[in-house]
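Action item from last week, closing it out:
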Amino acid sequence: MYESLHNFLLQTPFYDYRIILILIAIGIFVGFINTIAGMATAISYALFMLMGMPINVANGTTRVGVLLQFITTSFIFKKKGFLNIKTGLNVGVPVGVGAIIGAILAAILNVKIIEIVMAIILPLMSILLFVNKNAISQKSNQEKNHEESNNSNIALWKFLVFSLIGIYGGFTHSGVGLLIMFGSFFMLGTDMIRSNALKQFAVTIYTPLALIVFIIAGQVNWGVALIYAVGNIIGGILGSYASIKGGEKFIKIFVTAIVLIMSALLIYKQFS
């Protein structure tokens, strides 16, 4: 079964209607999950590699759909009143700075090390989502964090943390959305819906910077990228409204489910 699928994807041109349907369908699924939670870009990498792309080209190709999708979803969250642009810049600028470094280092860093670390850390972070912040911090501190999240300035240590997240995002998009959401939730005091909105905006800022690196390196398959992006945009729109309508509890449950599934797959990959 796997061999047959691999041969079909490898031997069939991307402009064949069957490949176009596959790209758009999987693009919708990935776009939906990435908008609500994250980690689904790993599916993009797997698909593109089955089509014969090396990992660096798969990494660059997926960024086109990511950019167009998150531009669309940022607009939706802004229109619905969940995205504060000043706060978005507080998150997006340091993430963008880090993303440039991460994209450049993508060719020399050991992917397995990052996969193992993420497989361990992400489930622990998802558990923290269900901890009542009022039970572990004073109300005054929370109000201070909330005020800071809407201020034009951000503490240096938070800038550095978001820059580190950006380095990871520049290296691989898979999972960076979760890290941005977690960072916004815990460091800026935003709820999960607004943390998700900040993720959309931050990704919109950093992705062009990383994409430029991949374009210069000639690591973007534009034919596949543009077709796949159509699905990403559709999935992103559906995911945005599902996220807003479902509320914070829906996002927490969805994020946790995705994290546990992807962590299990990453751990399995290391021993397979």
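Closing note: The chain has one domain: 2-271.
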